Amino acid sequence: MTTEKDNNSTDAPADPSRRKMFRLSAVAAGIAAVGGAGTFISHRVEGVPFEGGFPMPIDDKVLKPFNQRNWIFSQGGSERNRAEFPNRDKAFSELIGEEDWSFQDGMFAASDYTRSPEQWDNARPGYQQIDWALFCAASHPLEYLGKMAKFGMPDAPGICGWPQKNLAPVKWQFASKKEAATKIKRAAKLFGATRVGITYNDPRWNYEPMYNIFESKEVSWDEYPFKPKTVIVMLHEMDYDAIRTSPSPASVGAVNKGYTDMAVKAGSLADFIRRLGYKAIASHNDSINKVAYGIMAGLGEGARNGALVAPGLGPRVRISAVITDFDFVEYDKPRNFGIMEFCEHCKLCADRCPSKAITFDDKPGFKPTYEGADNPDLAWAGQIGVKKFYNDAKKCFKFWADNTVACTNCIKACPWNKPDFWHHRLIDASNTFTKGPVHTFMKDMDTLFGYGDMDVAKATKLFWNKED
Protein backbone atom coordinates (compact mmCIF):
# COMPACT_ATOMS: atom_id res chain seq x y z
CA MET A 1 0.00 0.00 0.00
CA THR A 2 1.41 3.35 -1.03
CA THR A 3 1.01 6.23 1.39
CA GLU A 4 1.13 9.95 0.84
CA LYS A 5 4.44 10.00 2.70
CA ASP A 6 5.83 7.46 0.22
CA ASN A 7 4.84 9.62 -2.73
CA ASN A 8 6.10 12.88 -1.26
CA SER A 9 8.92 11.73 0.95
CA THR A 10 11.58 14.26 1.82
CA ASP A 11 14.05 11.53 2.71
CA ALA A 12 17.31 11.35 0.71
CA PRO A 13 16.94 9.33 -2.51
CA ALA A 14 18.02 5.71 -2.46
CA ASP A 15 20.52 6.14 -5.29
CA PRO A 16 23.91 6.83 -3.61
CA SER A 17 25.06 9.05 -6.48
CA ARG A 18 21.91 11.17 -6.13
CA ARG A 19 22.42 11.40 -2.38
CA LYS A 20 25.96 12.58 -2.99
CA MET A 21 24.78 15.15 -5.52
CA PHE A 22 22.25 16.60 -3.06
CA ARG A 23 24.89 16.72 -0.35
CA LEU A 24 27.38 18.42 -2.65
CA SER A 25 24.77 20.86 -3.85
CA ALA A 26 24.10 21.84 -0.27
CA VAL A 27 27.80 22.38 0.35
CA ALA A 28 28.09 24.37 -2.85
CA ALA A 29 25.19 26.58 -1.82
CA GLY A 30 26.85 27.20 1.52
CA ILE A 31 30.13 28.14 -0.12
CA ALA A 32 28.34 30.45 -2.51
CA ALA A 33 26.63 32.15 0.42
CA VAL A 34 29.96 32.63 2.14
CA GLY A 35 31.48 33.88 -1.09
CA GLY A 36 28.85 36.58 -1.48
CA ALA A 37 28.69 38.79 -4.52
CA GLY A 38 30.38 38.27 -7.87
CA THR A 39 32.99 40.92 -7.16
CA PHE A 40 34.12 38.97 -4.10
CA ILE A 41 34.37 35.76 -6.13
CA SER A 42 36.32 37.58 -8.81
CA HIS A 43 38.73 38.86 -6.17
CA ARG A 44 39.25 35.35 -4.83
CA VAL A 45 39.93 33.95 -8.31
CA GLU A 46 42.63 36.59 -8.75
CA GLY A 47 44.39 35.22 -5.67
CA VAL A 48 45.91 36.83 -2.61
CA PRO A 49 49.27 38.55 -3.30
CA PHE A 50 52.23 37.09 -1.42
CA GLU A 51 54.81 39.46 0.03
CA GLY A 52 58.39 38.35 0.50
CA GLY A 53 59.92 36.42 -2.38
CA PHE A 54 59.15 32.84 -3.37
CA PRO A 55 55.90 31.70 -1.72
CA MET A 56 56.83 28.05 -1.09
CA PRO A 57 59.12 27.19 1.86
CA ILE A 58 62.73 26.52 0.82
CA ASP A 59 65.57 24.63 2.49
CA ASP A 60 68.48 26.90 1.59
CA LYS A 61 70.99 24.24 2.60
CA VAL A 62 69.63 21.83 0.00
CA LEU A 63 68.23 23.94 -2.85
CA LYS A 64 70.65 24.44 -5.70
CA PRO A 65 70.22 25.52 -9.33
CA PHE A 66 69.12 22.54 -11.41
CA ASN A 67 71.81 20.75 -13.35
CA GLN A 68 70.19 20.16 -16.74
CA ARG A 69 72.26 17.02 -17.15
CA ASN A 70 69.84 15.53 -14.62
CA TRP A 71 66.80 16.24 -16.80
CA ILE A 72 65.16 13.04 -18.01
CA PHE A 73 65.55 14.04 -21.68
CA SER A 74 69.26 14.61 -21.04
CA GLN A 75 69.67 11.08 -19.73
CA GLY A 76 67.57 9.67 -22.52
CA GLY A 77 69.07 11.63 -25.39
CA SER A 78 72.74 12.15 -24.56
CA GLU A 79 75.30 9.44 -25.32
CA ARG A 80 77.74 11.17 -22.97
CA ASN A 81 75.24 11.08 -20.11
CA ARG A 82 74.48 7.41 -20.63
CA ALA A 83 78.19 6.57 -20.82
CA GLU A 84 79.02 8.52 -17.64
CA PHE A 85 75.92 7.49 -15.66
CA PRO A 86 75.20 3.91 -16.79
CA ASN A 87 73.83 2.95 -13.36
CA ARG A 88 70.82 5.20 -13.92
CA ASP A 89 69.52 3.04 -16.75
CA LYS A 90 70.49 -0.14 -14.92
CA ALA A 91 68.87 0.85 -11.61
CA PHE A 92 65.62 1.84 -13.25
CA SER A 93 65.55 -1.36 -15.31
CA GLU A 94 65.86 -3.32 -12.08
CA LEU A 95 63.17 -1.24 -10.38
CA ILE A 96 60.61 -1.83 -13.13
CA GLY A 97 61.62 -5.44 -13.66
CA GLU A 98 62.67 -5.06 -17.30
CA GLU A 99 66.25 -5.98 -18.08
CA ASP A 100 68.18 -3.55 -20.28
CA TRP A 101 65.29 -1.09 -20.62
CA SER A 102 66.66 1.96 -22.45
CA PHE A 103 65.74 5.55 -21.67
CA GLN A 104 67.06 6.52 -25.08
CA ASP A 105 64.82 4.09 -26.94
CA GLY A 106 61.87 5.09 -24.78
CA MET A 107 62.48 8.78 -25.36
CA PHE A 108 62.37 8.52 -29.13
CA ALA A 109 59.52 6.01 -29.09
CA ALA A 110 57.39 8.55 -27.21
CA SER A 111 58.60 11.74 -28.86
CA ASP A 112 59.31 10.99 -32.52
CA TYR A 113 57.07 13.12 -34.75
CA THR A 114 57.28 10.77 -37.76
CA ARG A 115 54.89 7.88 -37.31
CA SER A 116 54.75 5.01 -39.76
CA PRO A 117 51.58 3.13 -40.75
CA GLU A 118 52.75 0.24 -38.56
CA GLN A 119 51.85 2.34 -35.54
CA TRP A 120 48.35 3.19 -36.68
CA ASP A 121 45.59 1.18 -35.05
CA ASN A 122 42.44 2.03 -36.97
CA ALA A 123 40.38 -0.30 -34.79
CA ARG A 124 41.30 1.70 -31.69
CA PRO A 125 39.75 5.18 -31.29
CA GLY A 126 42.36 7.74 -30.34
CA TYR A 127 45.18 5.77 -32.01
CA GLN A 128 43.92 5.81 -35.59
CA GLN A 129 45.66 7.34 -38.57
CA ILE A 130 43.72 10.57 -38.13
CA ASP A 131 44.84 10.86 -34.48
CA TRP A 132 48.50 10.29 -35.34
CA ALA A 133 48.15 12.82 -38.17
CA LEU A 134 46.96 15.40 -35.63
CA PHE A 135 49.82 14.55 -33.27
CA CYS A 136 52.44 15.02 -35.99
CA ALA A 137 50.95 18.05 -37.75
CA ALA A 138 50.62 20.03 -34.52
CA SER A 139 54.39 19.99 -34.08
CA HIS A 140 55.22 20.35 -37.79
CA PRO A 141 56.07 24.09 -37.55
CA LEU A 142 58.80 23.26 -35.04
CA GLU A 143 60.69 21.52 -37.83
CA TYR A 144 61.34 25.04 -39.14
CA LEU A 145 61.14 27.17 -35.99
CA GLY A 146 63.34 25.13 -33.68
CA LYS A 147 62.58 21.50 -32.91
CA MET A 148 65.70 21.17 -30.77
CA ALA A 149 64.47 23.79 -28.30
CA LYS A 150 61.60 21.46 -27.43
CA PHE A 151 64.21 18.98 -26.23
CA GLY A 152 65.84 21.59 -24.03
CA MET A 153 68.77 22.60 -26.22
CA PRO A 154 70.18 26.02 -25.21
CA ASP A 155 70.86 28.32 -28.15
CA ALA A 156 68.84 26.02 -30.39
CA PRO A 157 68.84 26.88 -34.09
CA GLY A 158 65.75 28.88 -35.00
CA ILE A 159 63.42 31.24 -33.21
CA CYS A 160 64.77 30.43 -29.72
CA GLY A 161 68.42 30.99 -30.63
CA TRP A 162 70.69 33.41 -28.80
CA PRO A 163 71.74 35.80 -31.66
CA GLN A 164 70.33 39.27 -31.02
CA LYS A 165 68.66 39.77 -34.38
CA ASN A 166 66.84 43.05 -35.03
CA LEU A 167 68.32 44.70 -31.93
CA ALA A 168 67.49 48.40 -32.29
CA PRO A 169 70.37 50.88 -31.78
CA VAL A 170 68.08 53.21 -29.78
CA LYS A 171 66.27 52.16 -26.59
CA TRP A 172 62.58 52.96 -26.29
CA GLN A 173 61.84 54.87 -23.08
CA PHE A 174 58.69 54.02 -21.13
CA ALA A 175 57.12 56.72 -18.96
CA SER A 176 56.82 54.38 -15.96
CA LYS A 177 57.42 50.81 -14.88
CA LYS A 178 53.68 50.23 -14.84
CA GLU A 179 53.35 51.45 -18.43
CA ALA A 180 56.18 49.14 -19.49
CA ALA A 181 54.46 46.14 -17.91
CA THR A 182 51.10 47.04 -19.45
CA LYS A 183 52.46 47.44 -22.97
CA ILE A 184 54.69 44.36 -22.86
CA LYS A 185 51.75 42.27 -21.70
CA ARG A 186 49.56 43.81 -24.38
CA ALA A 187 52.08 42.79 -27.04
CA ALA A 188 52.29 39.25 -25.62
CA LYS A 189 48.50 38.93 -25.70
CA LEU A 190 48.43 40.18 -29.29
CA PHE A 191 50.96 37.50 -30.21
CA GLY A 192 48.60 34.94 -28.70
CA ALA A 193 49.64 34.32 -25.09
CA THR A 194 46.73 33.27 -22.89
CA ARG A 195 48.17 34.93 -19.78
CA VAL A 196 51.34 36.88 -19.02
CA GLY A 197 53.31 37.65 -15.86
CA ILE A 198 56.60 39.46 -15.32
CA THR A 199 59.17 38.78 -12.62
CA TYR A 200 62.84 39.27 -11.82
CA ASN A 201 65.62 36.88 -12.72
CA ASP A 202 66.40 34.53 -9.83
CA PRO A 203 69.51 32.34 -10.36
CA ARG A 204 68.03 29.62 -8.12
CA TRP A 205 65.59 28.77 -10.94
CA ASN A 206 68.12 28.93 -13.79
CA TYR A 207 69.64 25.66 -15.01
CA GLU A 208 73.32 25.60 -14.06
CA PRO A 209 74.84 24.20 -16.08
CA MET A 210 72.53 24.10 -19.06
CA TYR A 211 73.02 21.03 -21.22
CA ASN A 212 72.99 20.48 -24.96
CA ILE A 213 71.92 16.86 -25.45
CA PHE A 214 72.56 16.95 -29.19
CA GLU A 215 76.21 17.88 -28.75
CA SER A 216 76.54 16.33 -25.25
CA LYS A 217 78.09 19.42 -23.72
CA GLU A 218 77.47 21.66 -20.72
CA VAL A 219 76.69 25.33 -21.30
CA SER A 220 77.35 28.00 -18.66
CA TRP A 221 75.56 31.30 -18.10
CA ASP A 222 78.93 32.92 -18.68
CA GLU A 223 78.30 32.11 -22.36
CA TYR A 224 74.90 33.84 -22.38
CA PRO A 225 74.81 37.00 -24.56
CA PHE A 226 73.85 39.27 -21.62
CA LYS A 227 73.19 39.32 -17.89
CA PRO A 228 69.53 38.35 -17.37
CA LYS A 229 67.47 40.76 -15.29
CA THR A 230 63.82 40.05 -16.10
CA VAL A 231 61.77 37.00 -17.06
CA ILE A 232 58.46 37.45 -18.91
CA VAL A 233 56.36 34.31 -18.46
CA MET A 234 53.59 33.31 -20.86
CA LEU A 235 50.93 30.64 -20.52
CA HIS A 236 49.53 28.93 -23.62
CA GLU A 237 46.20 27.14 -23.19
CA MET A 238 45.81 23.64 -24.60
CA ASP A 239 42.54 22.40 -26.08
CA TYR A 240 40.30 20.90 -23.39
CA ASP A 241 38.48 18.40 -25.61
CA ALA A 242 41.73 17.08 -27.06
CA ILE A 243 43.36 16.70 -23.63
CA ARG A 244 40.29 14.75 -22.57
CA THR A 245 41.26 11.97 -25.02
CA SER A 246 44.40 11.19 -23.00
CA PRO A 247 46.50 9.10 -23.21
CA SER A 248 45.92 8.99 -26.97
CA PRO A 249 47.95 10.69 -29.73
CA ALA A 250 45.05 13.12 -30.18
CA SER A 251 45.64 14.46 -26.67
CA VAL A 252 49.32 14.98 -27.42
CA GLY A 253 48.27 16.84 -30.54
CA ALA A 254 47.11 19.53 -28.11
CA VAL A 255 50.46 19.33 -26.31
CA ASN A 256 52.42 19.64 -29.54
CA LYS A 257 50.29 22.61 -30.58
CA GLY A 258 51.26 24.10 -27.21
CA TYR A 259 54.94 23.53 -27.97
CA THR A 260 54.51 25.26 -31.30
CA ASP A 261 52.74 28.16 -29.58
CA MET A 262 55.62 28.44 -27.13
CA ALA A 263 58.13 28.94 -29.92
CA VAL A 264 56.03 31.29 -32.05
CA LYS A 265 54.75 33.53 -29.27
CA ALA A 266 57.88 33.71 -27.14
CA GLY A 267 59.93 34.23 -30.31
CA SER A 268 57.67 37.08 -31.39
CA LEU A 269 57.80 38.76 -27.98
CA ALA A 270 61.60 38.44 -27.79
CA ASP A 271 61.84 40.09 -31.22
CA PHE A 272 59.50 42.86 -30.01
CA ILE A 273 61.75 43.53 -26.99
CA ARG A 274 64.85 43.59 -29.18
CA ARG A 275 63.23 46.06 -31.56
CA LEU A 276 62.77 48.34 -28.53
CA GLY A 277 66.53 48.28 -28.08
CA TYR A 278 66.83 45.70 -25.29
CA LYS A 279 68.41 42.26 -25.44
CA ALA A 280 66.03 39.32 -25.25
CA ILE A 281 65.91 35.56 -25.86
CA ALA A 282 62.90 33.26 -26.20
CA SER A 283 63.04 30.28 -23.83
CA HIS A 284 61.23 27.06 -24.75
CA ASN A 285 62.04 23.91 -22.74
CA ASP A 286 65.56 25.17 -22.12
CA SER A 287 67.51 27.28 -19.64
CA ILE A 288 65.11 27.83 -16.72
CA ASN A 289 62.55 26.22 -14.41
CA LYS A 290 59.39 27.70 -15.88
CA VAL A 291 57.06 26.34 -13.22
CA ALA A 292 59.03 28.25 -10.59
CA TYR A 293 59.06 31.40 -12.70
CA GLY A 294 55.31 31.03 -13.39
CA ILE A 295 54.74 30.94 -9.64
CA MET A 296 56.95 34.01 -9.13
CA ALA A 297 55.05 35.86 -11.86
CA GLY A 298 51.72 35.29 -10.09
CA LEU A 299 50.25 33.01 -12.75
CA GLY A 300 49.50 30.01 -10.57
CA GLU A 301 50.82 27.60 -7.97
CA GLY A 302 52.73 24.36 -7.96
CA ALA A 303 50.50 21.30 -7.73
CA ARG A 304 50.58 17.62 -6.78
CA ASN A 305 51.30 16.56 -10.37
CA GLY A 306 54.39 18.79 -10.52
CA ALA A 307 52.85 21.24 -12.97
CA LEU A 308 51.86 24.87 -12.68
CA VAL A 309 48.13 25.12 -12.03
CA ALA A 310 46.49 28.37 -13.13
CA PRO A 311 42.97 29.30 -12.00
CA GLY A 312 40.43 28.64 -14.74
CA LEU A 313 42.96 26.66 -16.76
CA GLY A 314 44.51 24.26 -14.29
CA PRO A 315 47.63 22.47 -15.57
CA ARG A 316 46.20 22.59 -19.13
CA VAL A 317 48.89 25.07 -20.21
CA ARG A 318 52.37 25.11 -21.68
CA ILE A 319 54.80 27.72 -20.37
CA SER A 320 57.28 29.76 -22.35
CA ALA A 321 59.35 32.77 -21.34
CA VAL A 322 61.39 35.67 -22.61
CA ILE A 323 64.63 36.40 -20.76
CA THR A 324 65.80 39.99 -21.11
CA ASP A 325 68.20 42.62 -19.75
CA PHE A 326 65.34 45.13 -19.57
CA ASP A 327 64.38 45.85 -15.95
CA PHE A 328 62.50 49.17 -15.96
CA VAL A 329 59.23 47.30 -15.50
CA GLU A 330 56.71 46.58 -12.77
CA TYR A 331 57.05 43.03 -11.48
CA ASP A 332 54.09 40.84 -10.58
CA LYS A 333 53.82 39.20 -7.17
CA PRO A 334 53.25 35.53 -6.42
CA ARG A 335 49.66 34.78 -5.40
CA ASN A 336 47.92 32.30 -3.17
CA PHE A 337 44.99 30.67 -4.95
CA GLY A 338 44.56 27.83 -2.45
CA ILE A 339 45.75 25.29 -5.01
CA MET A 340 48.36 23.50 -2.93
CA GLU A 341 45.91 23.11 -0.05
CA PHE A 342 43.36 21.70 -2.46
CA CYS A 343 45.93 19.24 -3.82
CA GLU A 344 46.52 17.85 -0.34
CA HIS A 345 42.96 16.49 -0.27
CA CYS A 346 42.17 15.86 -3.93
CA LYS A 347 44.67 13.25 -5.26
CA LEU A 348 42.66 12.68 -8.45
CA CYS A 349 45.78 13.02 -10.60
CA ALA A 350 47.53 10.36 -8.51
CA ASP A 351 44.47 8.09 -8.72
CA ARG A 352 44.41 8.29 -12.51
CA CYS A 353 48.14 8.17 -13.25
CA PRO A 354 48.60 4.91 -15.21
CA SER A 355 52.21 4.50 -14.10
CA LYS A 356 51.63 5.47 -10.44
CA ALA A 357 54.34 8.09 -10.81
CA ILE A 358 52.42 10.74 -8.83
CA THR A 359 52.74 10.69 -5.07
CA PHE A 360 49.84 10.02 -2.70
CA ASP A 361 51.63 11.84 0.14
CA ASP A 362 49.17 13.73 2.33
CA LYS A 363 51.47 16.71 2.71
CA PRO A 364 54.20 18.27 0.57
CA GLY A 365 57.80 17.84 1.73
CA PHE A 366 61.35 18.89 0.94
CA LYS A 367 62.45 15.70 -0.82
CA PRO A 368 60.96 12.75 -2.74
CA THR A 369 59.48 9.76 -0.95
CA TYR A 370 58.95 7.44 -3.92
CA GLU A 371 60.58 4.01 -4.08
CA GLY A 372 64.31 4.30 -4.64
CA ALA A 373 64.42 7.99 -3.66
CA ASP A 374 67.40 7.34 -1.36
CA ASN A 375 69.34 5.77 -4.23
CA PRO A 376 71.29 8.46 -6.14
CA ASP A 377 70.86 6.42 -9.31
CA LEU A 378 67.07 6.66 -8.97
CA ALA A 379 66.61 10.17 -7.55
CA TRP A 380 68.15 12.38 -10.20
CA ALA A 381 65.23 13.88 -12.12
CA GLY A 382 64.07 16.88 -10.05
CA GLN A 383 65.18 19.98 -8.13
CA ILE A 384 64.92 19.24 -4.40
CA GLY A 385 64.89 21.67 -1.45
CA VAL A 386 61.45 23.19 -2.11
CA LYS A 387 58.44 22.14 -0.04
CA LYS A 388 56.26 20.53 -2.70
CA PHE A 389 55.00 17.17 -3.94
CA TYR A 390 57.72 15.07 -5.57
CA ASN A 391 56.91 12.58 -8.34
CA ASP A 392 58.90 9.88 -10.12
CA ALA A 393 59.40 11.21 -13.63
CA LYS A 394 61.07 7.97 -14.69
CA LYS A 395 57.92 5.94 -14.10
CA CYS A 396 55.93 8.55 -16.00
CA PHE A 397 58.33 8.33 -18.90
CA LYS A 398 58.22 4.54 -18.87
CA PHE A 399 54.49 4.70 -19.53
CA TRP A 400 55.11 7.12 -22.39
CA ALA A 401 57.38 4.53 -23.97
CA ASP A 402 54.91 1.68 -23.44
CA ASN A 403 52.10 3.84 -24.82
CA THR A 404 54.33 4.95 -27.74
CA VAL A 405 53.22 8.52 -27.03
CA ALA A 406 53.11 10.90 -24.07
CA CYS A 407 50.32 10.95 -21.49
CA THR A 408 48.26 13.85 -20.09
CA ASN A 409 46.03 11.94 -17.65
CA CYS A 410 47.13 14.11 -14.73
CA ILE A 411 45.98 17.20 -16.64
CA LYS A 412 42.74 15.55 -17.73
CA ALA A 413 41.92 14.51 -14.15
CA CYS A 414 42.58 17.86 -12.46
CA PRO A 415 39.41 19.70 -11.35
CA TRP A 416 41.14 23.03 -12.10
CA ASN A 417 41.50 22.01 -15.76
CA LYS A 418 37.81 22.09 -16.58
CA PRO A 419 35.79 24.53 -18.75
CA ASP A 420 34.05 27.57 -17.36
CA PHE A 421 31.18 25.77 -15.63
CA TRP A 422 29.77 27.18 -12.41
CA HIS A 423 31.01 24.60 -9.93
CA HIS A 424 34.56 24.79 -11.24
CA ARG A 425 34.64 28.54 -10.89
CA LEU A 426 33.17 28.00 -7.44
CA ILE A 427 36.22 25.88 -6.65
CA ASP A 428 38.49 28.62 -7.95
CA ALA A 429 36.70 31.30 -5.96
CA SER A 430 36.51 29.52 -2.62
CA ASN A 431 39.89 27.85 -2.40
CA THR A 432 41.67 30.71 -0.68
CA PHE A 433 39.40 30.37 2.37
CA THR A 434 37.92 26.84 2.37
CA LYS A 435 39.77 23.92 3.92
CA GLY A 436 40.13 20.14 3.76
CA PRO A 437 36.63 18.69 4.14
CA VAL A 438 35.16 21.13 1.62
CA HIS A 439 38.01 20.37 -0.81
CA THR A 440 37.11 16.69 -0.60
CA PHE A 441 33.48 17.51 -1.39
CA MET A 442 34.63 19.59 -4.36
CA LYS A 443 36.68 16.69 -5.69
CA ASP A 444 33.65 14.42 -5.37
CA MET A 445 31.53 17.01 -7.16
CA ASP A 446 33.98 17.07 -10.06
CA THR A 447 33.81 13.29 -10.42
CA LEU A 448 30.03 13.24 -10.00
CA PHE A 449 29.56 15.66 -12.87
CA GLY A 450 31.62 13.33 -15.08
CA TYR A 451 34.76 15.40 -15.69
CA GLY A 452 38.23 13.95 -16.03
CA ASP A 453 37.10 10.31 -15.96
CA MET A 454 36.01 9.73 -19.54
CA ASP A 455 37.27 6.73 -21.52
CA VAL A 456 39.42 7.37 -24.58
CA ALA A 457 36.94 6.10 -27.19
CA LYS A 458 34.09 8.30 -25.97
CA ALA A 459 36.31 11.36 -25.55
CA THR A 460 37.84 10.88 -29.00
CA LYS A 461 34.40 10.65 -30.61
CA LEU A 462 33.33 13.86 -28.88
CA PHE A 463 36.52 15.64 -29.91
CA TRP A 464 36.27 14.79 -33.60
CA ASN A 465 32.53 15.46 -33.84
CA LYS A 466 32.31 18.66 -31.84
CA GLU A 467 30.87 21.63 -33.72
CA ASP A 468 31.57 25.21 -32.65
Domains counted in the coordinates: how many? 1
Query: Rounded to an integer, what's the Rg over CA atoms?
Result: 23 Å
- The secondary-structure class comes to alpha+beta
Percent helix among the residues? 40-55%
- Tell me the overall shape: globular
Q: How far from one another are the termini? A: 52 Å
Beta content comes to 5-15%
* Poorly predicted sequence stretches spanning 5 or more consecutive residues: 1-41
Largest sheet: spatial strand order = 2-5-9-6
* Number of separate helices: 21
Biggest sheet architecture: 4 strands, antiparallel
On the 0-100 scale, what is the average pLDDT?
86
Instruction: Tell me how many strands there are.
Output: 10
Keywords: 4Fe-4S, Cell membrane, Iron, Iron-sulfur, Membrane, Metal-binding, Repeat, Signal, Transmembrane, Transmembrane helix
Main location: membrane
Cofactor: corrinoid
Domain 4Fe-4S ferredoxin-type: 334-363
Description:
Residues 334-363 form the 4Fe-4S ferredoxin-type domain. Its cofactor is corrinoid. The chain crosses the membrane at residues 21-41. Keywords: 4Fe-4S, Cell membrane, Iron, Iron-sulfur, Membrane, Metal-binding, Repeat, Signal, Transmembrane, Transmembrane helix. By secondary structure, the chain is of the alpha+beta class. The protein has one domain (42-465). The chain is built from 21 helices and 10 strands. The strands form 4 sheets. It has a 4-stranded antiparallel sheet, with helices on both faces. Strands 1-10 form a two-stranded antiparallel ribbon. A hairpin with a 4-residue loop joins strand 3 (210-212) and strand 4 (217-219). Helix 2 crosses helix 20 (436-448) and helix 7 crosses helix 17 (393-403). The termini are far apart.
